[in-house]
Amino acid sequence: MTEASHSRLSSKDLSLGYATTKILEHVDIAIPDGKITAMIGANGSGKSTLLKTLGRILQPIDGTVLLDGRAIAGLPSRDIARTLALLPQSPVSPDGLTVRQLCRFGRHPHKGMLTRTTRHDEEIVEQALAATGLSDLTERPLDRLSGGQRQRAWIAMALAQETPILLLDEPTTYLDIAHQLEVLNLLRDLNRTQGRTIVMVVHDLNHAAQYADHIVAVANGGIHAAGRPVDLLTPDLIRTVFDVDAMVIPHPADGTPLCLPLSIDF
Amino acid sequence: MSASVTNRADLRAFSAGMIALAVILAIAVLGMTIGAVTLSVSQVVDGLAGGKSAFIVTQYRAPRVVISILAGASFGMAGVFLQGALRNPLASPDVVGITKCAGLGAFLAGLVSPPALAIWSIPAGVVAGAVVGAMMLLTIGRSFGGGIAALALVGVAIGLFGQALMQYVMVLFPTRADQSMIWLAGSVYGSTGAKVMALSLWLVLCLPLVFIAGLRLDAGGFGDETLISLGILPGRLRGGLITVSVLLTAGAVASVGSMGFLGLLAPHAARLLVGARARHLLPVSALIGALTLSAADLIGRVIALPNEIPAGIVAAVIGGPYLIFLLIKEAGRHD
Fold first, then answer.
1. How far does A88 lie from chain B, in Å, by closest CA?
2. CATH code, A74
């Protein structure tokens, strides 16, 4: 298996969906280590379902998800939680938690619920809060944070989990443009400085183009294409995946592909 | 900085707990002095030590006071566990049908066993009914995916089914219906030292589970996706919390009858006082449950002399409007 050295998380002949309706079939995907992967696709294409299956939230109808070459279905949940964390799209938290208390739950896979937080755990929590710029807000209850701050608090919890792989389901939904960029910049920092592998479902093609090293386009019941943004994002692909006509030009600032949709006649 | 905030919440919970405890003690003393024969506090103390009024105090009044406290605390904690497991503030052992099944179990056990064995058969019937109800809840709930909404709806259906069966049995055996009506309303009348021993023993056995489940209670507030990501199996966590709730409910129902309503009221009042963290909510809810049941029993004993009104009815009459008040206040906080 040549890809094992480059990809700790992969899938083999995966079929996803509900009872009889398959959403995706024969999915073979390898998440490149140490890179940011963006999953793009139309609503209902199955990109979130694929992400959740990679994160063992959902069971595939057929096929296997492989983590370090072993079938994820056979691994203890706690062990997986030390390698892979998943941040859902709209996470629900217990009432009355502060930022630090939320972040502490990220230590669970390392210590369990019955033992007390050690000094080492507190250090990791502190680092996670610092990395997400929340050091001044540690005692703030979650329900008194802005949308962007709350999303950073959840990312801090995932960081405290110390997993090399981080999956995020639409981390920028419900955020305004400034907070979207705040979260994306944070994820890029975490990838560049800590070497974490990041996989995220994103809606905005230009975010995918600017922030991802690797794009997976999900369409028509399978992986339509995967590759570097500059190779992948073409008017043809955008038409096939989203049914939208678009121009693609180099971004004036950094040269990444910039997708400009053309108006649609209904 | 973190310490000061944590300490403030701890201090608040501690003060609330101490005040509740003081009120409970005051009610307990009153409960032992008031009655057909009024005793002074010194006579009560003398009686507890085996003096002149020993019979009234130790055989009749003290067991009743202690049972109210223990059963009230059990309902208060059972409600917290169930609400935490189902992530629903309206969940209570009553709402998800566990008390109904426990009641059905008690009634059936009372029917089939000779009266001399009733003191053992009825609690056994309660526990059996509660456990069967909870197993139905968890198995049927799981077949619908084990989600929170599925568990809650299945619970409501089980409760309705249990109640219908009970009414059917009561119609079949009308001579036994009177006693079960009182029992269904919930009453601490006729508490004995043996009952106190039985419930205390049950609670001591449950205590380690309560402690373990208490440490896991906060995690119940996460969505299932987050739990899985943290390496926690949601079904096992919620099933465990529900099981502890069922055990506490069964013990309390066996001693005082069906008063699941307390399991709704006490956690709400406690949440308003000390917030939603388990380490504060659980003990304070237990104390408020104990306070409410012992106050309800005291009021029920004196309000319509020479008759007694079952504590369950008093608790519901006072608690209903109070719960509405709490809900309004809670709703106001979210605006």
1. 6
2. 3.40.50.300
